What we know:
By secondary structure, this protein is α/β, with parallel strands linked by helices. The chain has helices spanning 52-58, 99-109, 113-129, 147-156, 175-189, 212-225, 237-247, 251-257, 275-284, 292-298, 305-310, 326-345, 354-359, 362-367, 401-408, 435-451, 462-499; strands at 19-29, 32-35, 37-42, 45-51, 65-74, 76-81, 132-137, 159-165, 198-204, 229-233, 265-269, 287-290, 315-317, 385-389, 414-419, 422-426, 429-430.
Amino acid sequence: MRSSTLPSSLTASDFDADELLLAPQEILLDGNIVEGMAVHIAQGRFATIGPRAELCASLPHLAPLELPSHLLMPGFIDSHHHLTQSLGKSLVFGEPSEIFRRIWVPLESSLDERMLYLSSKLAALEALRGGFTTAVDAGTRSAGEIDAVAMAAEETGMRCVLGLICNDQGGSATPQQRQQILDRAQHHLTRWPSSGLIHPSLAISIPEAASDDMLHDVSALCVTHGAIFQSHVNEHLQAIERSLVARGLRPLQHLHAVGALGPQTLIAHATLVTPDELNLLRDTDTAVAFNPVASSWKGNAVAPALNMRALGIRMGLGSDGTRSDAFRLMDAAETSQRLTIGLATGDSSCGGGWPWLDMATCDAADAAGLSGICGSIAEGLAADFLLVNVDTPEMTPSWDRPWELVRYGNRDQIDGVFTLGRLRLWQGWPCHWDARELMAEIRESAAAAIAQSPIQRIHPTSSTHRSLRRSQYQSQLQSQLQSQLQSQPHQSSRAGEQRQ
Length: 500
């Protein structure tokens, strides 16, 4: 059992109310830690935030829920995820770049609607457990209806920016097919109410997968509907070289040439960017999803996040579906910049801690087109937040709570995860549905789904790799032993000659 410093009488059911008056020890407001404050939540939003005594006096019908040793902070926002890839997440360990060609596209394309739903629900559960109250999904290649992804997100209570892929095969689609894609995109953008958890978005997986007209039109549709346009850009060297050969432009330059960059655009990765391209991102106000764990696990490079931030480029942190742990993501972001920039320049601070916290909350909300909806503890915004236990050895004593969250925070400190004012997870597990039943079904069905996918893996599993290394080592020993045995007669003969 997890220990907690919540009052012993407090349970998940105490938060099951239309209105809540919460009195935590600390609140993260505008990047600062404040004490002695309370939060009134009504109709799924932060209604009032103010001094505890004043709020209690003005709301006599509500008994305050005392939350000693707890921090109330914004829920984290994953600005780049692939919800429908969770069934194969550990299949890509050790794989070289562009794994989407060999693993993700084959896997997603083989998922039926049920498996699409199960994969998305598992990913949403992982995200919530890791402190993410919002995930920006980049779209799926599955033929199944995207409704399955939306349903999974809504059932778990996770806010989702839901991408619809609009590739027209680099322009090889017929005019009729291209119009069908645009019609479907138009329908997707108008399907969900703005007050709910689903926020539609359009995506082109990589620029080369669409014609110039489609890139322009999809981006323009997003402008018209106040949605974001997503694409993977300048992530791998191979894609940059293909773009240069085909068009004489790098992928980011290609998007700019067709008018697809702008405040509506969120590009994932941007790890291989030139100084001119950094200026291009700044001048067009295009946002970037910075994915540090993806870089360390499978990428060709690390995005120059510190340089981007210095230029004023809008940024959010993304997991790229690697692992859904917001605290470890912030730590990876800071560490990546320390190793790639800080060591070479003598910068021991690498931002001072707070930029990574902002990139995982308010800045990520801005990058995802949600700044007026969530990302901060502020009156009028959706009540998407976490209750984090700070009564831990790692955070005792506390001298710099924001930076401590980046370096010492852990998901096992998260007692409560809320979206729209409703408690979704309590101490790591859902309150209103059976997560273990979901996991049991996935264990029974995942093997068949993977087996029927034409996946091509390059790197063996760790157990196989260990066996291969052991076999190679034994072969080397045998070869050395045989060489020694073969040389012994010659050595004996030379020794005899010397004695004579």
